[in-house]
Amino acid sequence: MPDAPPRHVLSLSGGKDSAALALYMRERIPQMEYVFNDTGKELPETYAYLDRIQDYLGKPVIRLNADQGFDHWYDVYGGMIPSNHRRWCTKMLKLKPFETFIGEEPVLNYVGLRADEERSGYISHKPNITPVYPFREDGLKLADIERILRDSGVGMPPYTEWGRTRSGCFFCFYQQKIEWLQLKDKYPDLYEAAKVYERPYPGSGNVFTWSQGESLEELERPERAAAVRREAERRRANREETRADLTLAEVYANRFAPPSEDDDAACVICTI
Ligand code: SF4
Fold first, then answer.
1. How far is CA 101 from CA 39, 47, 72, in A?
2. Could you identify which of 26, 124, 180, 183 might form a hypothetical disulfide with 129, taking C-beta atoms 3.0 to 4.6 angstroms apart as the criterion?
């Protein structure tokens, strides 16, 4: 008996590259299954953005939820806030539900890594999942992604309008300090919700922070916040100064790329 044809699955993160890839693949792979790994801690506007994408695609974006949410695993891990070296959140809330959804059938998993970026993506170790990179294969770069989103009417993810550079959980530890302050400006209630996790954990008394080296309470103190904002503005001005030497696509990349962040280390399933 011949092997069954593979399923085609594309994971949306709420970010621009996976959104553009979904639009790009709509006509090419009509049988595509679109999924969103929902941690339950996403930015409110991400859901509205997914609805816009879904309307354009004309088919549902399937929401995948873990059996147990963030707070359950936070307790299991003894109140340990996730970090780059303790990335249990991605594993338990994104990867496991995705792999459960995939099952054991052969699957082509479409990933929105672009032709103009070096980072490597999360690739499932499950042998039945084969990653596919259409933007890389077709040479599509950042400017192409922006054009696809603009021409479709879907547009860029809303969080880019207020300075955030990543999709994913509102409290994602990959945020720069200036992004934490922007979160506080835009969603003060979510900033407060993130602070709750920095309290001493009952029983052990362990304290972890989201942002390296300081708590959110320390970060929001007026003098400290002003210094972080000044530094962010200085960096932005420096980038503007070098604009004359850059191509348009590079200028755009600078505008949306975090200036001091290690993209390779980030979770592609959360942010692409
Ligand atoms: S977005 Fe950030 S906090 Fe959320 S699952 Fe991904 S790495 Fe973890």
1. 15, 20, 21
2. 124
